[in-house]
Amino acid sequence: MKTIALRELAHSRSGEKGNHSNISVIAYDPALFPLIKDQVTIEAVRGLYGPITKGAIHRYELPAIGALNFVLENVLEGGRSRTLVFEESGKALSSLILTLRVTVPQSTPERSQAHNKGIL
Amino acid sequence: MKNIKLGCGSAWARDRFEHAVELVKHGNIDYLCFDSMSEVTMSAAQVAMMENASTVPYDPYLVERMRPILSDCKRKGIRIITNQGWLDPVAAAERLISLAQELGINDLKVAAVSGGVLHQAVADMDINFIETGEPIAHARDRIASAETYMGAEGIVQGLAQGADVVITTRVADACVYLGPLVHEFGWSFDDHHAIARGMIIGHLMECGTQITGGYFADPGYKDVPDLANVGAPIAEVTESSSLITKLPETGGLVTEATCKEQLIYEVQDPSAYMCPDCIADLTRVSFRQAGKDRVEVIINEAGRPKTDSLKVLIGLTEGYTAEEMVLFAGPGALARADLTKDILRERFKKVDLKAEEIRMDYVGMNAVHRESTPAPPDDPYEVVLRIAVRTSTRAEAEKLRKEVDPLAVNGTYGTGKWATMSPGSRVQPVVGLSSALIPRQKVPFIMTLHTTTN
Fold first, then answer.
1. What pLDDT is recorded for position A117?
2. Domains in chain B, CATH or no CATH each
3. What average pLDDT values come out for chain A (120 residues) when binned by 10 residues?
4. DSSP label at B26?
5. Which of B49, B99, B173, B342 has the greatest number of beta carbons closer than 10 A?
6. What is the spatial distance between Cα B424 and Cα B404, in angstroms, rounded to a whole number?
7. What is the pLDDT of residue B53?
8. Which of B260, B273, B288, B300 to mutate to test the interface with A (most CBs of A within 10 A)?
9. Residue B172 to residue B325: CA distance in whole angstroms
10. CB distance B363–A92 less than 8 Å?
């Protein structure tokens, strides 16, 4: 087994709804979705975003596309219309989730390496 | 078989202008659809009108967007759907009619779809804020804006009346795509699977190039060819198939990955994506690469009937904000920024700054992911101290700049200045948004037709 950044297995996009932010986690390879589902838990996400998330964190599954959707409630300090936060819309929040460490079989291909070999 | 092609002319009010022009020239499209709104657009427009009476009540870019394309669209039979009507779609329609006359288009028909703008009347409708449960009536004196997310029915009616252009007030963003599909395929609004399919296509399209490689590139992980010339998306829809592609010979890419990211964008529970005309189950959507930059959207009976209510956004006046920055670099930059923070805290006490909130961040270190930022280096080369305050009065917010500008001569060694040449005030009034649900029968749409007269 090896421990790597989630960024090697998945990509992510964040969007805003009022004071909430949604952060997707999408497996590059749908075969890795079960592994991602097991390790990218609400607790793991709270470990990263807990200090700025003032409300609940929800996790939803989209198995047909190998993706999770996290909703972080009250993470934008009031939302774009009133927030004092420098990054007002949370569009830059997605990159943090990709720093999460995940443990995978040694043979699991890593996105950056496949990229360097010109496979992608 | 009928194959309807919808192009995205803009994803928001300040999107690039060239997308629409290129789509009309090279896109071979049937409809050109514009989204001009984010959540804050309508309340910001209301504030702009309060501050300056000469501000137009519709998208100030309306004429600039339509002038280069209106004649060609009319000649080619490309119909335009746009939500640039904002607070007054009728005024916007009349403005387009005068533009058409100026351009020598003598038979333009414009449909204006109004009805969702409630203003202070929302306080009399016996409904509560979703966020707090408080009655809206209690906030009556502070209501700056109130608008409903309307469905696609008004757009469909305008198209049925032969409109070349349909211009609306706030509709759910995806409706500028759903409307033409309902019109073309004759779907009933009770056919919730068909409506959901149109809504999902609209949801994928509404953010424009976010599905063709914009907001996607991550060098070494997700590379995007020629992002500087990213091409606008085009949806190709038949009675039985849905496909996303983009303008040929442009930058960007359309892949299953770009489509997946956009499918979940700004979504909460994907199994119940709430729309004015249906509930869409996004977990019943998948994608198949059908060719280079062509992705089939597979939508498997994803609809449920609409609810009895519509969402209303309510903007309340909530005081003022102000923001300043102070710049440091080189050895000891962080220590000088820390000292400057201490100086400002003391100065704020001395001038009795009455702030509801004060925020100080170091841009480049912890201003984006804030308290969730991993531990920064001990001695960063550059530090930008950013200070933001929220106050209940304008005079209190003005105190911030009055304390920051003098740091140039009263602060630490090597204190850099930010935007000190800009004259006047940087204080912004705040209209904070909240939401509510309103029984849909209380918000009927009104469709009016406007034509050029010879």
1. 63
2. 4-115+149-308+442-451 (no CATH), 318-429 (3.30.70)
3. 98 96 98 97 98 98 98 96 95 98 96 70
4. H
5. B173
6. 14
7. 87
8. B260
9. 37
10. no
